[in-house]
Specification:
4-stranded antiparallel sheet, 2 domains, two-stranded antiparallel sheet, Gyrase A, domain 2, 4 helices, Topoisomerase I, Chain A, domain 4
Length: about 190
């Protein structure tokens, strides 16, 4: 295998990693968009002040979903009930925690039609951001391939590499589309 082939293989691996990161980011963002059913991931970004440090909620408590409409938070230390409740209010994510002295319960309200459409728009925007990120990876890689061609990469090898980049792009854009479709169906069928 020539040095140029090794370089293009490495470049394609880096490109795929970059595109995979775009998908991972999309998945994380889409998970945060609540679809009217309880999901512990809805609270992933909540930080609670714990001995002067902002600490993720899931490191301070068990977060469970006993049913489709309820999230239960059971702190490891009872003294953390109020700080956790305060952090959820401060996060401004539209959830109202109730503290019964030993656990915090959050009832997830049913989504209105208007709210579903709003969330669908948000999902579409996240999907478009992922598509743009994937296309940017493709553009950067193709520019690198052109630069490698100027440094001695054969035209045929450059064409093969560009075709492989396009295949990767199509594959990851397809993944974005399937995530978008799944989340839209979830939102509209609640």
């Amino acid at each position: 295998m020539s040095q140029e082939s090794q370089d293009t293989d490495q470049l394609l691996q880096e490109t795929e990693k970059s595109m995979k990161k775009s998908i991972d980011h999309l998945e994380a963002e889409v998970r945060k968009i609540r679809a009217g059913k309880a999901d512990p991931n809805m609270l992933d970004d909540i930080l609670v002040e714990y001995y002067g440090m902002n600490t993720p909620l899931n490191q301070l408590a068990n977060v469970t979903t006993p049913d489709a409409k309820t999230i239960v938070i059971q702190p490891f230390e009872k003294s953390m009930l109020e700080p956790i409740e305060k952090a959820i209010h401060m996060a401004n994510i539209g959830l109202n925690p109730t503290n019964d002295g030993s656990i915090i319960r959050i009832n997830i309200p049913t989504l209105t039609e208007e709210r579903r459409k709003e969330l669908t728009k948000k999902v579409k925007a996240e999907a478009e951001n992922a598509r743009v990120s994937i296309r940017n990876s493709r553009k950067e890689t193709n520019n690198k391939i052109k630069a490698m061609q100027k440094e001695g990469l054969s035209e045929d090898e450059a064409k093969v590499a560009e075709d492989e980049v396009q295949e990767l792009t199509d594959k990851y854009i397809g993944k974005v589309d399937s995530h978008l479709q799944a989340k839209e169906e979830e939102l509209m069928n609640m």
